Amino acid sequence: MQLVSDFHHLPMTIELAVDFFRQLILTSLLLVAPTLLTTIGVGLVVSLIQSVTSIQEQTLTFVPKLLAVAAVLLVTSHWMVRTLMEFCTTFIQRIPDMAP
Description:
Number of strands: 0
Structural class: mainly alpha
Largest sheet: none
Distance between the termini: 28 Å
Shape: elongated
Order of helices and strands: HH
Helix content: over 70%
């Protein structure tokens, strides 16, 4: 998966800076998505259970969310680190191309 467009011969321009920024935002969203979606899903399920059972304990949602996020981080940590390393490696390799 190539994260940055092929501008190997161009110096740093507005277009290149915008492309780097776009790739940074997309990579960030990609990395945070599993954790965020898990938190939203678990929160929704716990809220539905609280509504059905009329339990209105505010701290009840904390433990299931914590356990679910920990499980997701354990499962996806290898992928997250690999994706972040690919982005950083690509960016660092492109530093010489940014000089005028």
